[in-house]
Amino acid sequence: MVTEMAAGQPHPGLRQLVSRYLGYAQDDVPLGLHRGLPSRHVTLIISLAEPIRLVGMPRPGEPPADLMAPVGGMQLSPALIRQDRFQRGVHVELDPLAVRSLFGIPAAELSEHVVDLADLSPRLERLPERLAEAGCWERRFGLLDEFLLAEAAEAEYSPEVGWAWRRLRAAAGRIRVGTLAGEVGWSRRHFTERFRRELGLSPKQAARVLRFERAGALLRQGHGDLAGLATDCGYYDQAHLTNEWRALAGCPPGVWIAEELPFLQDAPLPEDPR
């Protein structure tokens, strides 16, 4: 398999909204089905080739879809993608709290859903075409800056929820919900409701995703000791890790390692400059 990868940082005016841009071009892809795993981000994937074929949605019962620019909210199960032998595109990692600013809705409205970018903002309908016409990754990342800066607007959300989300993220999910609620001065019930209303997941669910994401990043970096990795990521033991992977990835970690890890680029743990 021939793979070309490029990473880009967003414009400073977008740093609170977008974590990074990842460009990819892959030829002779051997893996027919890819699992789009839960993560801390609302994910935008823009195809520069054929539409992305989503054959399994995070929410059961939702029909498959072929989309040029799918946007996926935070989720507790994988999105299943049927892969073409050749694929090219850009992966954009959005902070869930940025969804209000870019699309005028809370991230909760996208939770467990995958929607077309054009349905969120008709002004972005031509973005896939413009990116495909650009001649290099640097120009594509510049176009993303232009389009997203034009969309970005002032948006208000609870500062307590924002603080708690950053705190939970920095701890990679290894902090108790009751502790977070106490630190913002709310009851656990009120805190959970306000958090879910904004992000679409409860704090406990978000913590599960963050621990899972850290485990996946460490596996990509070659950490093969599952028992040690389970302890490092905040699981009770290896069995707890395995059960969480079955729930969030749709398979145990050993299956994911065998089926998908050989075809993934090494990925550093997500940085959190905020």
TrEMBL record:
Q: Name one Pfam family in it.
A: HTH_18
Q: Which residues form the HTH araC/xylS-type domain?
A: 174-259
**Keywords, sorted A to Z:** DNA-binding, Transcription, Transcription regulation
Which Gene3D superfamilies does the record cross-reference, listed alphabetically?
Homeodomain-like (1.10.10.60)
Q: Name one GO molecular function term.
A: sequence-specific DNA binding
Q: Is DNA-binding one of the keywords UniProt gives this record?
A: yes
Q: What is this protein called?
A: Helix-turn-helix transcriptional regulator
- Source species, please? Amycolatopsis alkalitolerans
